[in-house]
Amino acid sequence: MKRRIVALLLALSSIFTLAACNGNQETGSASGAGSSQLLTIGTATTGGGWFPMGGALASVLTKYMPNTTVTAIATNASLENLTSLEGKNLELGMANSDVVYQRLKGINGYDPFQEELATLFMMDEIYVTVVVPTDSPYKTFKDLKGKKVGTGTAGSGFYFMVEAILESYGWTYDDIIPYQASNGDQADALKDGNIDAYCVLTPGKYGPSAGFVELMTTFDCRLLPFDEEQLTELPKEKPFYNGSEIPAGWYEGLEEAVPTFSVNTQLCVRADMDEELAYEITKTVFEHVDELAEVHPNWGGLTLDLGCTNMILPAHPGAQRYYEEQGKTVTYLE
Q1: Residues of the chain with pLDDT > 90: what percent?
Q2: What pTM does this model have?
Q3: Residue 299: left (phi > 0), alpha (psi -120 to 50), or beta?
């Protein structure tokens, strides 16, 4: 009887081992000859710009990298993407420089990284946009003191960014009435007259997100500029923020540039990603920027010089190798 039980256990062990081996063959590393792999990109909410940009990236990587299937998923953006990378729940994640910098340093209320992450390349800068009804009496952000302002959800990267902007004015969240809600809910609240202003981060030089365009075309509204003093001083204190401007023509009907803050973005991975895989992803992206831009215009600003400039996390060795082959030097934001 004991011999039969032992034999049965050995047989079951062999079955499970064989199944595990077969599973590993289906999702092996990039260096495994003939193996296939599944990669997931963390983006942002479906109404923002990162989600369709991630879809374009996933499509191009799947098309040109053999035995590789890449999927873009909706997330709550930078903080969730970085945490999911640490937890090995994503292979690639988009993130804002302010969140990356503050997590790396463990400052301003951010927890330091528990796992080592790296950057493949920097992406386009994205703009802080403040929307008010066209007939609003407010002329600049300074006029919003004491008003009800949409700020994004509490604890999000953008919520902390708005907090930093408030501090540059000498304010705290006590100096406004914060409306903590998703982008879609903020837009609805502005239309219904339940808030005075709606703040959101939206890409980039080549036009805003689809959700933002819908708001600007279905509701009589305008962009509110920030004030020159804060645009000059805040980047000195917090170098991950930029004093910038939204260019005229950014969306149909925008006739003049709007002074605002911007923040750079990047594609992050775990530091222990296979070097050859990181190299191939980076190489594939820069060899097919035109095709990426055809799918989503905000990829049109990606260049090699932009991609390796003002990194915060270390460049992944695979990406570093590609830049060196192209004669480029990686620079870092101090």
Answers
A1: 74
A2: 0.86
A3: alpha
